[in-house]
UniProtKB/TrEMBL annotation:
GO terms for biological process: NADPH regeneration. It catalyses: NAD(+) + NADPH + H(+)(in) = NADH + NADP(+) + H(+)(out). CDD domains: Rubrum_tdh. SMART domains: AlaDh_PNT_C, AlaDh_PNT_N. Keywords: NAD, NADP, Nucleotide-binding, Translocase. Coiled coil: none annotated. One of its GO terms (cellular component) is plasma membrane. This is NAD(P) transhydrogenase subunit alpha part 1. Residues 139-301 form the Alanine dehydrogenase/pyridine nucleotide transhydrogenase NAD(H)-binding domain. The gene is pntAa. The transhydrogenation between NADH and NADP is coupled to respiration and ATP hydrolysis and functions as a proton pump across the membrane. One of its GO terms (molecular function) is proton-translocating NAD(P)+ transhydrogenase activity. Its EC number is 7.1.1.1. It comes from Pseudonocardia hydrocarbonoxydans. InterPro entries: AlaDH/PNT_N, AlaDH/PNT_NAD(H)-bd, NAD(P)-bd_dom_sf.
Length: 355
């Protein structure tokens, strides 16, 4: 496990508990000095778990969080295996470089969303972290209470919170906002998630538009559907104090769900937290990575939310990596991936050519 080089990336690919587990299976684990400091894990804790502090780039398998830089790809040995978030849909040049370097690469975001791969589903594990933190950011920026408060000075009504896009991150956002006392509502173009929304004690916003896609994702809307969705959302959004958006279409620019007109219609002091900033944002007034105030509404578009909670985000991600790695190992702890396995076949984005 090397040290992450990306700005603000505090997560790690392996935590001490996972190191212990791998060492117990006969795997030698090498950790770069200082690799765990962002997640508050010093070298001596890794050593106590059975790891060796040294150069990780010559290993058979290198586990990362963020995609490797060009320089890092150059440090991988030919025939090595790389595991991490590799952005296969949006960074084809990196995949080409990995293939040219003779590296076998597994993208954590390409793991199929099937039942037996749930323990490896890093998108879901990190989505949970992001959804939770987004609500805390909304509460911090809000000028109003989340819960109903009854005091000697009178009763304060609870905040109205709307979550747009109720995948894993959205469901966690709904659950967290509910715990904080807000009245919650969820919306998605996939009608099958309505029951999940209601199971969390939230209301379902039905706009009459459905877009069921493959692999648990929503398909891209047609131009007519998008226009109708925006018109209906503009009317609905004005009634909410908090709007959290999570909608992403893999490999594409994030759809616009909150228009400038909708923001203008919101009450002063309201908050929009746009979790799709990395792919352009769901709010028309979003400035990715920034917090801005438009029409007296605060619009926050944080990037890489899971990295702001590195301890638990790393624990979850390391379990995902470990589960995937175990699928590649034989009973002797040697690397022996079986590409007839659906999980390995679909998550492997570069592979050595076989004759």
């Amino acid at each position: 496990m090397p040290r992450e080089s990306g700005a603000g990336e505090r997560r790690v690919a392996l935590v001490p508990k996972v190191v212990e587990k791998l060492v117990g299976k006969g795997v030698r684990v090498v950790v770069e000095s200082g690799a765990g400091l962002g997640a508050l894990i010093p070298d001596d804790v890794y050593v106590a778990a059975g790891a060796t502090i040294g150069d990780p780039w010559t290993a058979d398998v290198v586990a990362k969080v963020a995609p490797p830089t060009t320089e890092e790809i150059g440090r991988l040995r030919r025939g090595a295996t790389l595991i991490g978030f590799l952005a296969p849909r949006t960074a084809p040049e990196s995949l080409a470089a990995l293939k040219e370097a003779g590296v076998v690469a597994y993208a954590m975001e390409a793991i199929p969303r099937i039942s037996r791969a749930q323990s490896m589903d890093a998108l879901s594990s990190q989505g949970n972290v992001a959804g939770y933190k987004a609500v805390l950011l909304a509460a911090e920026r809000s000028t109003r209470f989340f819960p109903m408060l009854t005091t000697a000075a009178g009763t304060v009504k609870p905040a109205q919170a709307l979550v747009l896009g109720v995948g894993v991150a959205g469901l966690q956002a709904l659950a967290t906002a509910k715990r904080l006392g807000a009245r919650t509502t969820g919306y998605d173009v996939r009608p099958e998630v309505a029951d999940q929304v209601r199971s969390l004690g939230a209301q379902w916003l039905d706009l009459g538009i459905e877009a069921v896609g493959e692999g648990g994702y929503a398909r891209e809307l047609t131009e007519e559907e998008r226009a109708e969705q925006q018109t209906r959302l503009e009317e609905a959004i004005t009634g909410f104090d908090i709007v959290i958006t999570t909608a992403n279409v893999p490999g594409r620019t994030a759809p616009t769900l909150v228009t400038a007109k909708a923001v203008e219609g919101m009450r002063p002091g309201s908050v929009v937290v746009d979790m799709a900033g990395e792919s352009g944002g769901n709010c028309e007034l979003t400035e990715p990575g920034e917090v801005v105030v438009k029409h007296d509404v605060t619009i926050a578009a944080p990037l890489n939310l899971p990295a702001t909670m590195p301890e638990h985000a790393s624990e979850l991600y390391a379990r995902n990596v470990s589960s995937l790695l175990e699928l590649m190992l034989d009973d002797e702890g040697r690397l022996a991936p079986d590409y007839d396995d659906e999980v390995l076949a679909k998550s492997c984005v570069t592979r050595e050519e076989t004759s």
